[in-house]
Amino acid sequence: MGQVPEEILLVDDEGTLLKLMSVYLRRLGYSVTAVNTVAKAWSHLQAGSERFAVVVLDAGMAETGIHDLALKLLSAHPHLRLVVNSGYPVDMSALLEAAPGRVEFLHKPFSPDMLVGVVRRMRGAQEEV
Question: What is the pTM of this model?
């Protein structure tokens, strides 16, 4: 089994939050790509999804709904793990059932320690596969 990639793809339209998440994860040794649109995220994934371990995605950016976007993302890139975050309630039950062990929810506002905790859990799940 190969080594789990270190790179994290952050997708959020809140510029300040995107920068804070990037800085914190980089300080912990992760390589980070941060983008502010879903289209840019897809472009990075199409160019080389194997370099990303985890995608951290703001649920509010899913134009077609987070469930549809997440399933499309996970089916196109089977090794990825997804962290969905939102400041609003999100029904994750169908998504968690459809992709067990590959998706987690992180409620905004979250602390840097909460972010790194969920990233580590998702990477740990990849190492077990």
Answer: 0.91
